Amino acid sequence: MRGAAVSLLDNLRRAVEWRSIRVHDRCVLALARLKRRRLKDTVFVGITGSAGKTTTKDLAVAILRRLGPVSCNHASLNYLPEVGMVILNTRGRDHFSVIEIATLLPGDIACKTELVQPKIGALTVVQREHVKSFESIEAIADEKAAMILALPENGVAVLNIDDPLVQSIGARTRARCLWFGSAPQADIRLIEATSSWPDPLTLVIEYQGVQYRCATAIHGKHLVVPVLAAIGIGIAAGAPIETCLAALGDATTTPGRMQIVSESDGVTFIRDDYKAPYWSFPITLEYLRDARAKRKVAIIGTISDYSLSASKLYPKAARLAMDVADLVVFVGPHALRALKARQSEDDHSLVGFTELEDAHRFLQRELREGDLVLLKASNHADHLFRLLLARRRQVLCWRRDCGFNRFCDACPELDKPAHGANVATASVVASGITTGPDIASPGIGSPAHSSESVHPGWLIVGMGNHGEAYTGTPHNIGFAVLDHLAERLSAQWQMTNEGMLSHAKLNDHEVILFKPSTLTNLCGPFVARTLQRFGVHPNRIALVHDDADLNLGDVRSKHSGSDGGHKGLRSVFSALGNGGAISRIRVGVRKTDRAGSSARSIVLERFQEEDHDLLRSAQTKAIEQVQTVIANGGR
Hints:
Shape: elongated
CATH topology of the largest domain: UDP-N-acetylmuramoyl-L-alanine:D-glutamate ligase
Number of domains: 3
Radius of gyration: 29 Å
CATH class of the largest domain: Alpha Beta
Strand order of the largest sheet: 2-3-1-4-5-6-7-8-9
Low-confidence stretches: 419-456
CATH superfamily of the largest domain: Mur-like, catalytic domain
CATH architecture of the largest domain: 3-Layer(aba) Sandwich
Helix content: 25-40%
Mean pLDDT: 84
Strand content: 15-25%
Number of helices: 20
């Protein structure tokens, strides 16, 4: 009853908060409409398009500030109430107000345009952004057109002449068109663009028959469109082209959009982690390909706006990245799908981690001076910026489902282990224990057995939940098998930070028996640290675990493939980054009278006395399978 009451109170609190937000938003919009009527001397500039809106806005603001005071959106805050707040914060003495106008659903741009009433409007490009919300790219073009078609007769439309869909929109507007692009008839014509790290983007453009060199402080040839659009906005506002070019010399982009971050250890990050539509991949990777660096690394998170299935998309994206980068790291729920692009099981140029913290531990060891690292992701889904933050400070929140679309450096939860996060791993980080080859090994059997003197052939991991409450449950069958094996070998257990360890010999092979001291669903980092601590080759590890798809007493082995829904396996695959290429001994735990029951309802129920014979038989079979796996070298 108490839990139901708490749940009811939480729901009531959320309902009140939601209602308060709705009332606040309506008040903001009502006041913004009144304020907009009074701002007759301020020129409003609207910027829309499938890509480059925020960068165009930032560069345009840098130019227009040379002419007078300017108000604008902060970062990419472009929802309707946020647009209203920009208007409310615009002062009567502001010469310009530059507002990014985006869309999520049909009608969004028309609604925002009616509120803003821009006199100058820029349209960068029409691509398949938000394609799932619209039926076609033509429908997306119609949505973008709403702002351009609403411009007044004395207004100016700054348009990309190289995009056929934008051209068709320009043909329908009543405003004067100022075209930019590489086509000969462009008003602001691109002659040449170069950008090869570490050199920033430099353009040669032609305007009114004169060529100009435009040196910027930003990176990537794909940002040519925002640069040209910003110049167009400046000219439409009355700025001489020389003023526009001078302003672009030191203007920078909003964080997370081709932002260069140089670390003190000589690693340089290219942060393009705000959003990652699939159509933008080839463009971003082209920049990495042309860069001059000792080693190129691509870290890729969740991809958005694609028409292929995820099982086909991620391997395709991986192959594109592998053609450019020396090391490709996929992070997130689709990371293991990307590993299908590997040429072989020994191909370590492509790795994947479903959990961000596991990726962090890998990159802490892997990245080195001279590396140029592209961070490409969708921030609202991944928050990959934590990979960079964790190199400088302690990060305890590694969750990926917080729902915030802000960057994590501004989040007060960063130093708190989040609910549902890997609490066991977080506690290890908080205690000051670090991963890597420099960890001193605990004694195994005697003080003489250290990481410097023992290099066992195999690591045998029994999977289960640490704690007395789980003893005798199906989920702990891996622990039970290892206990039975240690008993046979007269091996002694010793407690370490990672779990229970025992050193023994099995058929003339040195083995480490390991039972992680955490929940099975979180055991991956513990297995990875133990593997590294004792110098065991990644191909010489065997996992013993429960399998609810097999009947009690049935035991089988498997050497590759998916995790089959077993979260413990998923955690290990993520921590090791091997995509499931690992030996496992599957021990059946389903009773014949529970054939229709879910796996979740089975694995935490204690075995009964009548199950003893089948359990003992299963443990014996599992040990035989372990011996077979070792004898066959993992095959």
